[in-house]
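Take one protein record:
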Amino acid sequence: MTVTPNRVFLNGETVVLQRFGTLTDLLAKQAITTESGYVIAVNNTIVPNNQWSELVLQDGDHISLFQAIAGG
């Protein structure tokens, strides 16, 4: 029996997960701290930070992590 890995793509890099969790779980697993003002898109849709702990990732999701930068 072949087991297909649970995988997502974080900024183009493959991340294999033991089980799918929330976006917050993924950030913790990757040791990404979010105090620096990140913006996250999942499958090209911006996810508000108050929904990160509710969004359950699915196999093949593409996650883009951007650090918000103020400009003038």
About this structure: Residues 6 and 18 are 7 Å apart (CA to CA). DSSP finds one helix and five strands in the chain. The chain has a mean pLDDT of 87. Strands lie at 6-10, 13-17, 38-42, 45-47, 62-67.
